[in-house]
Design goal:
alpha/beta, TIM Barrel, 8-stranded mixed beta barrel, 20 helices, 21% strand
């Protein structure tokens, strides 16, 4: 295999082709393989050889007037098979129609006329090569992200997002299916006693045995740490019978791993239908857990209590909103207490549901339970970046453990920042206080990677839940956002005042700036300023809204 990328030159005149190759060899020969062809047909043979060698065809330089297939038709055909390859037409006889044809349908990168200027040609090819590899890098980063989104990190089996996608596709085709859920109840005890790595090995082996038992005829999903789903075209009862036989195998023999037998106490639930079948099976699984039964529980209409039904209907709305890109950012200004200006905004997730706007207090808990929080977070980040690519202001976005636990997340952020041409320093990621870094080992390294690419880091809701001095040692935050519980009672509560004063002194000691949240009265703002807090955020200055205020109204 030739690891060097390729530059392919196509021209029917031998001396032109020879001169072109010699010039390119002097500039690119050490880093690229320079190939030549005297016709489109010969070029196709060379391209096939490059494909077979898994080589990078970075640039194609093509004449227009050639025997057989003309240059514009060849480049259009090449665009269909190699859209990333940069295509340059180098010719002295191409009519305007042919050039237009190549531009419109062949994504022509550049047109150069003969005789060519050597410096112009070299510069054009260098730019084309840079563009090729930038696009390739973005594609690879996006592919890594897709893999992390749709496949479980440990077992590489399709995950919940993958299941939701399949169910939606089947529903669009009006296809009924059966689903069966398996939940391992004893997994916390196994982890506590033997550690997470042993549990992961057990889970992988269980998935492998289940897949073999099903003869790869039914789709197996690794939804969560303790939950498996089997999706099948079989009738529901037939699927239950199939998994019942698998369970008998587990009962008759202990589940052995490296000479140790483990008893897996599981709950089983099933349902049938279209896109709603998972939610039905989940209700049945709740029932199996409530009854503490090892028997198979099938979904029935009486399981749909109003509360459960409302939750699942809302969960369906959430998934529809994700699919229809109706996760939208609302913006709340952050006042700089020194300049008295708002030059930074926090982006807050909202869901558009017809004429209604759903706030996080409505959908956040369900999004975490169903796993859709990850897609909401990524869509929010992308929408916010796109929005602020048209404005000069800084902006901040909340992060959950769903984003932080994926090692590819920082690469995806870097790719998106590059795509929208945003300076990383403009973006602050707010780390929510309900994240336990002891439970999510990748979180700290992901935060450090985000800081390495230039993003700012803030600890949100500082002072509650997992907030402690050890957390400040794990990474160096740029901002501490003091939780509103301490801020809203500042004028009346002396203890709150002293605690906030201590937090401000701590922040100064570690070089972090301080943001006071929930500032909704002038009396609170006066105390915030007297404490030397750098920024204020709250209804006193701006309520969350769908668009930024007029520029002239930003100065207070």
């Amino acid at each position: 295999m030739n690891e060097k990328p390729y530059i392919l030159c196509i021209d029917d005149e031998f001396f032109i082709l020879w001169n072109l190759k010699e010039q390119l060899k002097k500039v690119f020969g050490t880093g690229f393989s320079i190939e030549t062809a005297e016709s489109a047909e010969s070029a196709k043979e060379i391209i096939k050889e490059i494909e077979n060698a898994n080589g990078d065809l970075a640039v194609v330089i093509c004449d227009h007037v050639m025997p057989g297939q003309k240059g514009d038709d060849f480049l259009i055909q090449l665009q269909n098979s190699h859209p990333r390859t940069k295509k340059i037409m180098l010719t002295g006889q191409a009519p305007a129609q042919a050039i237009g044809n190549a531009l419109n349908h062949g994504c022509l990168y550049r047109y150069l006329s003969k005789p060519w200027d050597a410096h112009d040609l070299e510069l054009t090819i260098k730019q084309a090569i840079d563009a090729y590899f930038q696009e390739k890098s973005l594609e690879e980063k996006n592919k890594e992200l897709v893999d992390s989104l749709y496949f479980h990190r440990d077992t590489k089996y399709p995950n919940f997002e993958s299941l939701a996608k399949v169910l939606k596709q089947n529903s669009q085709n009006h296809k009924d299916q059966s689903i069966l859920l398996i939940k391992i109840v004893t997994f916390p005890n196994i982890i506590k006693t033997f550690g997470i790595e042993v549990y992961r090995k057990i889970f992988r082996k269980l998935l492998q045995q289940l897949t073999v038992h099903l003869h790869n005829e039914h789709k197996v999903f690794h939804l969560y740490s303790d939950e498996i789903a089997i999706l099948s075209d079989l009738p529901e009862q037939s699927l239950v019978d199939l998994i019942r036989s698998f369970r008998m195998m587990l009962k008759s023999d202990e589940f052995f791993l490296d000479g140790v037998g483990f008893h897996l106490d599981c709950r089983y639930a099933s349902a049938s239908g279209q896109e709603d079948c998972y939610y039905k099976a989940k209700l049945a699984l709740f029932q199996a857990e409530i009854q503490n039964t090892r028997d198979f529980v099938s979904y029935t209409e009486d399981l749909s209590t109003d509360h459960h039904l409302q939750n699942f209907q809302l969960s369906q709305k959430i998934y529809r909103a994700i699919g229809e890109k109706k996760i939208v950012p609302y913006f709340q200004g952050i006042l700089d207490n020194q300049t008295r200006e708002i030059r930074k905004f926090e982006c807050l997730a909202r869901i558009k549901d017809k004429d209604t706007i759903l706030t996080p207090d409505v959908f956040l808990k369900l999004a975490k339970v169903t796993g859709s929080i990850r897609m909401i977070g990524l869509q929010m980040i992308d929408e916010s970046m796109q929005y602020f690519s048209n404005y000069p202001y800084d902006f901040s976005i909340n992060l959950t453990e769903s984003e932080l636990e994926y090692t590819s997340f920082s690469k995806w952020v870097e790719a998106r920042l590059s795509q929208y041409k945003i300076d990383p320093k403009r973006l602050t990621f707010e780390i929510l206080e309900d994240i336990s870094f002891s439970e999510h080992k990748n979180s700290v390294s992901t935060i450090k990677d985000l800081k390495a690419i230039g993003c700012q880091i803030a600890i949100d809701d500082f002072g509650v839940q997992y907030s402690n001095l050890a957390r400040l040692l794990e990474f160096k935050p740029d901002y501490l956002k003091i939780d509103g519980k301490f801020i809203k009672d500042l004028p009346e509560n002396r203890t709150a005042y002293l605690l906030v004063q201590g937090m401000v002194e701590l922040a100064r000691g570690i070089g972090a700036k301080v943001v006071a949240e929930f500032v909704d009265r002038p009396a609170i703002q006066d105390l915030v300023e007297s404490l030397g807090i750098d920024f204020s955020q709250g209804y006193l200055f701006m309520k969350p809204q769908a668009t930024l205020p007029e520029v002239l109204s930003l100065k207070l």
